[in-house]
Structure formats: structure tokens, C-alpha cells
Amino acid sequence: MNNLSKYNLYYQYIVDLLAITISFWLAKAIKFSPILDGVNYNQQAYITLYFVMIVGYFALIIIMLHNDTLFSRSKIQELGECIKIVFLLLLVMLGFAFFTKTSIAYSRSFFILFVGFSVIFLFVFRNFLKSRFFFRYQLSHGRKLIIVGSLRLVKSALEKLKNTDDWRYTVSGLIVTDQNLKDSFIDNVKVIGSYEDYMEIIKSEAVDDVFLAADVIDRSVFRVASEICEEGKTVHVQVDDFNLMQNYHDIVNRIGECTVLTYLPIIPIPKRSAALKRLFDIVLGLCLLPALLILCVLSLIDSIFETHGRILVHLIRISRNGMNFRQYRFRTMRIDAQERIKAHKSPYTKFGLFLLWTHLDGMPMILNVLAGEMSFVGPKALKPVEYIHLSAKERTNLNVQAGVVGYWSCKYSDKELIHIERDYIESWNLGKDLLIILKMIGRYITFRSTRKYTKENQNEELHRIQRYVEFKQPLPYDHSLYHARHSFKESFYLFIKRTFDIVLSAIAIVILSPLLLVLMILVVLNDGGSPFYGHERIGKNGKRIKVYKFRSMRNDFEDLREVLTEEQLHEYQTEFKITDDPRITKIGGFLRRTSLDELPQLFNILGGSLSIVGPRPIVEKETKIYGDQIGKLLSVKPGLTGYWQAYARNNATYESGERQKMELYYVDHHSLGFDIKIIFHTFRSVAKEEGAK
């Protein structure tokens, strides 16, 4: 059995256990529900029967499921397999009840319900695993693979990879060595290099594995494989099946339908050990969340009284195999830190100094750990400039997630650290992680930490703060061109409107929370990545705001010029949106047509940056279209829906001038009655998908 088959079976075992467990306890709950039956029953007997069922399932795995072929079965065959395994489990449980003479303790109705639920859940879960889970896993978590070889061999390998169910890898690029095809596409995969620059490409690209497509294995192939291994990348060398010998099965692997020899720059942490490490990170991270929440509250209080602004900053760091991510930390400096430094004053807040002194400024990295971007123990998360200057041996150790702490935080020379970290990876166990964590806690408590807060660290945080300050600067425009009306009637209207915004958005968030959760899951399953998308828009009086939506575009969309036609590019430049946008996912298209992608803006409404009804929030480029009328447009708060969205939506464009007229008409005629009318018409437009694109 090859590695892929083993992984498929492991996942099948997990979903099977989940399905029969849910079925068992659901059948028991329904049978003995106070509403349906309510009779007394022997709780211990059913607990015993459950463990017998689990042991029976593992016995069946050993006897008959160890060579199961999940992907080769049709849905009818899968249903037959589900019925077979449930029937055998039923025989195991009935046999146990018969031989232990405890049949009287169990209900026949329970067994009937269990059989029905088990067949349904097994069939649904297994088909979900085959049709959705593995595909989504490949898109979001599959190891990034570059194929290197001649044009013929690259095409052949790419076809073999794409025509199989190998979900472990996603082809991120091609390097053609016998022709210069750079920036062209082969079967929708971009050619990113040629023979002249293949090593530079492999060094600079965020890639996990390199696939060498070769006819024969000779010294030149071994030389190339060796060079790539020295850069810390895993290399797979394709070999012909008839050249293989049984004695070499330990080094032979299969990727799709291609047989390869795999060379590892370092012995990786085994999959089961990696799963245990990940489970440890999640459990410890969840346990520390309350402490993080307390620190967030204290930091927020300090921010209110000492210096307003965000309590967290994010820094760009490099983790496993050159992947960059946003590392979160508490902000320790004041918003006016630049001015205070020039005045020879301390740029730090009082709470910030406390966080630095206690090393608690890094507590938000728990969020990175829970997101899978870091681990509690691992190599150091490097700055991009540090990663570029790493030696080949140092890069080799970066094939695991970066750690919050690690051997790097102890007193070791660079040369010692390479060998120590390699030994940590090749002989990992949970005890090592616990020992390092306890050792670092001891160092922090006794003030023997080797951490140095350098000028570089200070400048990095200052840069993030400056970016935030720039974002908070309102849009510059001539306020004298328009003067908003001020009257008791207008003030009363704004008070009532804000009250309705708070009440209705809060109620909607509570009522729609199940729908929001379902949509979040659907977006994540569609192509991985964050389910939300925050975009900078211009709010009331030119204030810059972040407007949130469900992400409707592919997580990996290319440059606009590569995926759009000339007509679509022109439409984007004039209307700031595109008809039949190729970047939109299937679920994204549905969300846009039904306007469900805008539901996260309920949180914007609750926070006060948006209103339920108002002009459409626009980007900075769109403000130029309004010319001298921009002051009028920005005199009111933008809305989730509005006169243009409800009555015309995409049918009235900037190019025709109709959109500007409708938005400005609302500014001149806004009232409580007009707002209510717009809300009701919005539901009608959404239901009919009027003007939807």
C-alpha cells in the first residue's frame, strides 16, 4: 500500500467512527426520549455496548478493511459497502448481547434506529470525504509542488497528476528546461521558469516540493536533486515502473499515477506525530485564550485612557518552507510615538512597557497557533530580510511551522542551533515540546531570557503604527463646496436612524447567526482561506472605513491583466466591477446574486461605520467621479442598502451618470419614510435578483 492509500484509509476510519458514534447515541436519545418513550434503561449497558461496537469496528478493519479502496467505488457500490459494514457491526453487538446473556437490557427499536442512521451517516460522510473534503484540503492545505523537466515530460507528469485523486499536492508552477515558455500556461498552470533560472525560482518561490520529471536517472538528475535538497526542499524524482525493484520499496513513493524516488533534505516529523503536535497546540491555545482575553481588555482600557488606536499590530514573518504570514502582537507604543521620539520622550505606553518586561506582548501569537500558522515550539519566525540571508543548512530546518518559543530562544551559537533543531525535528516527541516550554517559562520568571528588543524591532512596530495613522487620516476634499443641513428635525431623524441601526443589526446578527456560520463554512470549503474580506472604503465626512463582506473571489486569483479580457478591464476601470468576473467562485456567484455576501456589514452597522440605508460605500478612486458633488455625497453615512441598490443596482452605471444622480437624490431627500420604503424595495429586488451581476 502506498502512502496515499494509507492516508485515505486513515481519514475513512475517522469519518466512519464519527458516523457510527453519532448514529449510536442519536438512536439511543430518540428511543429513550421522554417525549417518545421515557422508560427507564440501563445506562451502563449502553456504554458497554458502545465500546464493544468500537472494538468490533477496529477488528473489522484488521480482518477486511485494511486494503479498502475508497476512491474506486461508485455511489451504488459505496452504499453497498456501508450496508455491509453496518450489518457486520450489528452482528458484533447482537453476538455480544447473546453470549453475555444481556439481550434483555437492549431495545430492538434502538438497533433498528442505529442501523438506519448508520447507513445514512456512513454514506453521506464517506461521499463528502471523497467529493468535497479532499478537494478543499488540496486547495487550502495541499503541499505546493513545482514540476521541472522537458516540455514533453512536464505535460505528461501534469496530466498524470491532474487525472488522479491525489489530494496531497497542488501544482503551483512549472519549469520547462528545453524551451523558453516563461509566463505562458500549460493546462491552466503557469510556467514560472526555464533551465537558465530554475534554481533562483526554486529558492525564491514559496514551495514545499519539487517534482523532477525525467526519462532516466543519471548523474545530472542526482546533481540537480542534490542542489535542490540543499535549499531545504523535498525532491521527488520520477522513475519508470519497470525499473523498480522490491528491495527499494522504502524509498519509492507515488504521486498520482507517477512513481517517484523521494529525497528528503531532513527526516520530517511523521504524520501521526505531526497530528499529535497540532492537537497539543490547539488544546494549549484554547486553554490560554481566557488569559489572552484578559490582556486584550486591559490593553483596550489602556488604549482608551492613554493613547487611542488598535491594540494589536501584525508583522510579516516567514514560516514553513518560506510561507509568509501575519504574526500578531500587542501594540506597545503610543500612536504619536514618532513625535515623542523626536522630542526625546518615551514612545511606549505604560502597559506596553509592562508587556515588554513580562514578555506578554507576544501573547496574541496564540491566534497564529490556533490558525495553524505557527506552533508553540519550533524554529524562529523570521523577517523576510533574515530569511533571504539564511544559509542552505539553516533553510533546511524550516520545514516545520515556526514556534512561539524554541531552541533559538536559548543561548546557542548559530552552528549549534542548526544541529540541535535538526535533531529536534528528526526525533520529535511531545516531551521535548513540554520541556522547552517549561524551560522558557523558568527563564522568563527568573529574568534570564535572551530576548533582545532591538532598534529594528522598534522601527518595525513604528512602521505598522504609521500605516494605521495614515489609514485613519480622512479623505482630503473641499468641505466648503457643500454644507449639510442642521435642524432639530434632522437631528431627531439621525437619532432615530442610529437607534434603529443598533437595534435591528443586533437582532439580525442573533437571528441570522446560524446562516452566517453556514455561509462561513461554505466559503472556506469552496477554496480555503479566510471567509471574510475587508476592503477600504470612504465613509461619512471622508473617514476611511473597513467594510466587511463574505469573500466571493478565488483565494489565489492572478493579476487582472492575466485573467480579464480587454472589455472586462475597461468595465473595471469605469464601473469598478466586472460582468462575468472569472475570479468569482461558484458559492461567490450565488452570494453576490442574492446579496448575502454583504451580511457581515451588519457588524459595520452595529459599530457605527455604516447605516442600514445610505449611499453605497465607495473606494477613493470613485470619489473623483463625483467632482464638486463629493462633499454632498459624503455628508451622510453610507449604507448596507440604498436608493441606487434597491431601485437600479447594476442597471444604473457611472458611465451613464444615472448612479451619481440616484445617490445624490437620496442625500437631498433622505427621511425616515424614504428609508423604510427603500428597505422593503430591497427585499423585492434581492428576491427577483434585479440588476444582479
Automatic annotation (TrEMBL):
It comes from the Bacteria. Keywords: Cell membrane, Membrane, Transferase, Transmembrane, Transmembrane helix. The keyword Transferase applies. Belongs to the bacterial sugar transferase family. It comes from Catenisphaera adipataccumulans. GO terms for molecular function: phosphotransferase activity, for other substituted phosphate groups. It is found in: Cell membrane. GO terms for cellular component: plasma membrane. The chain crosses the membrane at residues 9-27, 47-65, 85-104, 110-129, 279-301, 502-525. This is Lipopolysaccharide/colanic/teichoic acid biosynthesis glycosyltransferase. Gene3D superfamilies: NAD(P)-binding Rossmann-like Domain. Coiled coil: none annotated. InterPro entries: Bact_transf. Residues 277-443, 497-687 form the Bacterial sugar transferase domain.
